[in-house]
Amino acid sequence: MTDVKMKDSVAYAENNPEDIHNKLSSEDDNELRHPPHRHSKTRHKVSMVRAINGTSTQIYMLSAAILGILCAVLMATIIGLCVSYKGLSEKHIFLSQNSSQENSNLKQLIGNYHQLTATLMKVQTNFQEAVGVKDSMQRERDRDRLEKEHLQRQKEALVNEEVKLQSRITVLEKNCERCPVGWELLHSCYFFSPTETGRKLSWHRSREECKKSGADLAVIDSQEKQEFISRILNGKRTSRESWFTAGYWIGLRDVETEGVWKWLNGTELTEGFWMEGEPNDQISKEDCAATFRKENPLMTWNDAPCDHTLKWICERKLQP
Ligand code: 2F8
Ligand code: CA
Prior knowledge:
The protein is an alpha+beta fold. It has 3 domains: 2-73, no CATH class; 119-174; 184-317, Roll (Mannose-Binding Protein A, Chain A). The protein contains 5 helices and 8 strands, in the order αααββαβαβββββ. Strands 1, 2, 3, 4, 5, 6, 7 and 8 form an 8-stranded mixed β-sheet that branches. Strand 1 (184-186) and strand 2 (188-192) form a beta hairpin. It is rod-shaped. Bound molecules: methyl 2-acetamido-2-deoxy-alpha-D-glucopyranoside and calcium ion.
């Protein structure tokens, strides 16, 4: 066979493989029945064609498989992306909704914050006002407390005074009409020489006047008597004269021994109610004592010359 013929045969075989196959099968059969001894080149070429055909088929199948796999992978990827996109989209919507909700909440919170700030300022103002009121009330309470204590002290003083007056009333009732008219009563009857006449006498002349009434110059040997006489003197009208001419002789002197003061009843002085700096026995001539109208009822005495002229106080003992 020539090359041209061979090429034609090959082309034919490529285009009509079944026909060739059939032919070859019949030829093979012939060859089996009649062992080959001719056309060996042709058979070899046909075998090659067969091999080529098989390989092409395998490549096609392999390509188709790969293509199929790629398609499947592509589809899976697309599906996955779709699912993922859907999820992301839902998440986005959810987050958007949440974000607007959060914004709304935030605005609400800011509004609440401003309200609370305003309320807090009001509360602070009210608190400061309340503190002011409390301080004012505290001061008022302190004032009331001091006032109450003052009133309490006054009340106690009045109660004491009432007790004294009550006892004096008792004594007065008991001794009613036991002193002459114009005499004052305190355990004894006391007479104060009248201011109106302006009559003044020496210590001795004063004593004589007292004796005319069955009395003697007053013995003031207790604080009670001293306070009693001071109260009566402070109730009398004041005159414009010098203080040392406005006194009243009492029954006390230190004629026997200078500085040793004795009452007319012979008892020695134990508790004196001298003015500041007295007795001073001025120019060594002051041996008789007198009492004066002074602010302090317990510091009213002065020693003066016995011939000095003053008013006087008599004392007459009550009859038992
Ligand atoms: O200053 C006290 C003094 O005052 C008078 O003298 C200025 C009295 N004199 C008479 O009462 C007469 C003093 O006795 C007295 O000490
Ligand atoms: Ca004196």
